[in-house]
Input
Amino acid sequence: MNYDEALKHVIFRYVSGSNAYGTEREDSDKDYRGVFIAPLSEFFRLYVGEDDDGAMKLSVQQVEKPGEDETLYELRKFLKLAADCNPNIIEALFVDRLISHRSEIWNRIQAHRELFVSKKARFTFSGYAIAQLKRIRGHRGYLLNPPSHKPTREEFGLKANSIIAGEQRRTVLSLKADMVVDAYGQLQQVVEADIVAPAIREEVEKERRYEQALKSFNAYQKWNKERNPARKELEAKFGFDVKHAMHLVRLLRMGAEILETGQVHVYRPDREELRGILRGEWSYDRLEIYAEEMDVKFTELYETSTLRDKPDRKGIEALYRLICEQHYGVKL
Output
């Protein structure tokens, strides 16, 4: 199923991203997300297309509009992600503006949105926020101390070719020190245990450090090559990625609000402050301190929150069954 076909079966579609949060700028693009119900015929097809590797996919889960920032989720996938409290998905249940299409079926789903809200928000929203923080730290490291050259094996005291295969290195690192000799001895017939054990572990550690350095260098090269020019300018000006910083603060606050109120405030009441972060009004140190403070707050809110620990999956399943009966005109 392609985008045009899925669009015919859309039950909800809205403008997402910065426009939904109220943090858009003049040059901000409009991103769209939506939900569609696959035609009944799709459930009786064995293959519905190929993935990027050429393998046959067995069900339609989502489609993208070619050349545009728009994703439409098949209802089953949407319900699953919403139940998991995915930050990019559960917000749709609370959107009340910039809606281009909504159906009665969507109104029914939205009327039961309490089924999806749970204390899982503590982990999903903070998890997404931590991912943002890692990106900020990594990119800041590139800005302050960019790698000067591609690391070589010689720099790490290694020979041109590894004397220990990758699988064996992973085995060595997973074993206790007194077990390394036995495992390595079986492979290499080494008997001088007291000498060989430290040497093997040291060699493996050198390989690990080299691989990490190479991975970091390649990541830097990819980042530097693919950087958005506007983001590059902001990072150079403020010393860190202020757009990632804004999303970090937004995610932390939205997660805390869910734990406190059970509501997802999509159109941000703090949107002017978030715009200020984009303008560089927060320092990097302030951002780090705020993230640490919010991590403590999340732990406290998780303990005191009156939300259910997990989503009401039975209720969600019953809701989906009713929707199918209504939409397809069948009795299940």
